[in-house]
Design goal:
The complex is a heterodimer of chains A (about 220) and B (about 220). By secondary structure, chain A is mainly α. Helix content of chain A is about 95%, strand content about 0%. Classes of the chains: A mainly alpha (about 220), B mainly alpha (about 220).
Chain lengths: ~220, ~220
């Protein structure tokens, strides 16, 4: 093959091809280095995405805990109204502590995401309004089942309490969607990393082989 | 000393052994690159599997929270009905029970492939949830005007234990899933770093060997 090319090409053309060997090899090295760099950037993006997925998972956990806390407080208020049992006041305090812990965790998580932070500010207000309604009902004291029953059916109070629950539920649904999107992006990144990795290897082999062929051809023609 | 080394190199070049070595090094470089491609493929498919596990855990955690939310909501509607006698609460109650049973059914199919300890805990959770729902169904069946009976049930230590048991089993399941999720995520993150390191080292090694091979082949030229 080499001899056939040598016979077919003029001496000046052979010289030009010989001169191409080093630039092709250099090009292979540059391409190769940029591809490794690109793979590194892709891997860094994958790691950052994994971090955000973890952030969303923790946000979802905190939202669920806050939702359970909100409902837990409502439960204890209704139980206290029905039974007059002071143990329910203690349970209510526990639920408040759990809710506060969940809200603080959510605040910390929202700080890393400006959009979430803005939304969380509004939710905090709504949860505050919800807590105020139930604190007033608890403040009525034991055996106030009738008043609590009326408050539950009162549209204004109902709106305040349902607003907090709805806002938390909406946030949860949106975060579930965000989690799905981030997971899909990560799946794509994993496939891209594979294609990129294999692409680098194939390109390095092809360009290296080409450079080698040209260099060898140059050596052979030089004999 | 320098002269004798240079003499020996000249002899090696003259004998054509350098060219031979250069060709071998290039062949090794090609083999290393091919091995890198295979290793990268294996690592990335392992990452994909691990990541599927993370997604499954996420889904299961979302469902566990869903079951807990509906469980609490059922309890809330029973008390709401007892306090108000408003028939709207009967509709809310039915809706919540339906949604909870649907969430439990989905969770059952999610857990079908999970390890035995998780499946056993889930089976126990189903039993405890059934007991809890039976209890609430009994209270709702009393109809309006039975606030005192509901209050007695809420105070009853046996009833309270039944209500607590279902929630605590849900908490156990959630913790197991969270542990598994944390484990999988840590592994996935390590795997990403390892894959990159491995690919880089092999590819750089192959490139260095290839370059050595090229230099040796050039030495072959008189």
């Amino acid at each position: 093959m080499m001899f056939r090319i040598r016979g077919w090409m003029s001496a000046s053309a052979r010289g030009r091809v010989r001169g191409l060997g080093a630039p092709v090899l250099m090009g292979a090295a540059v391409l190769f280095a940029s591809a490794v760099l690109l793979l590194g950037v892709n891997v860094a993006a994958m790691r950052s995405n994994l971090g955000w997925i973890e952030h969303t998972q923790r946000t979802l956990g905190a939202i669920s805990a806050a939702e359970a806390g909100v409902v837990g407080i409502e439960l204890t208020v209704r139980s206290y109204a029905l039974t007059g049992d002071p143990r329910f006041l203690l349970f209510q305090r526990n639920e408040r502590v759990k809710l506060e812990t969940a809200m603080n965790e959510l605040a910390g998580l929202a700080a890393a995401d400006p959009q979430l932070a803005q939304r969380f500010g509004r939710i905090r207000q709504l949860v505050g309004g919800h807590l105020a309604v139930y604190a007033r009902l608890t403040g009525l004291g034991p055996d106030r089942a009738r008043e609590v029953g009326l408050a539950i059916n009162d549209n204004t109070k109902r709106k305040v309490t349902s607003l907090a629950r709805t806002a938390l539920a909406d946030l949860r649904l949106d975060e579930v969607q965000v989690l799905g999107e981030r997971q899909a992006a990560l799946t794509q990144q994993i496939s891209r990393a594979f294609v990129l990795g294999v692409g680098i290897i194939v390109a390095a082999m092809v360009l290296g082989g080409l450079g080698l062929l040209v260099t060898r051809f140059g050596f052979a023609s030089g004999h | 000393m320098a002269i004798s080394t240079s003499h020996r190199m000249d002899n090696l070049v003259q004998s054509g052994r350098m060219g031979h070595l250069g060709g071998s090094l290039l062949a090794v470089a090609v083999m290393l690159l091919a091995a890198a491609a295979v290793l990268l493929g294996v690592d990335i498919s392992r990452q994909q599997r691990m990541f599927n596990g993370v997604q499954e855990c996420d889904q299961e955690l979302i469902r566990i929270d869903e079951v807990e939310r509906h469980l609490l909501a059922v309890e809330l509607t029973v008390r709401g009905f007892a306090l108000t006698d408003d028939p709207q609460f009967v509709a809310y109650y039915r809706n919540e029970v339906g949604q909870m049973q649907a969430a439990l059914a989905t969770l059952a199919s999610d857990f079908a492939d999970d390890p035995a300890p998780i499946r056993e805990r889930f089976a126990r959770l189903q039993e405890l949830t059934r007991q809890r729902l039976d209890l609430f169904a009994g209270l709702m069946a009393l109809g309006p005007g039975h606030a005192a009976a509901v209050a007695d049930a809420i105070r009853d230590p046996h009833v309270r234990a039944t209500m607590r048991a279902a929630r605590s089993k849900l908490g156990e399941l959630r913790q197991l899933e969270l542990d598994e999720l944390g484990d999988l995520q840590a592994k996935a993150e390590r795997q990403v770093a390892w894959t990159y390191l491995q690919a880089s080292v092999i590819v750089i090694g192959a490139f260095a060997l290839g370059a050595c091979g090229m230099v040796l082949l050039r030495l072959k030229q008189p």
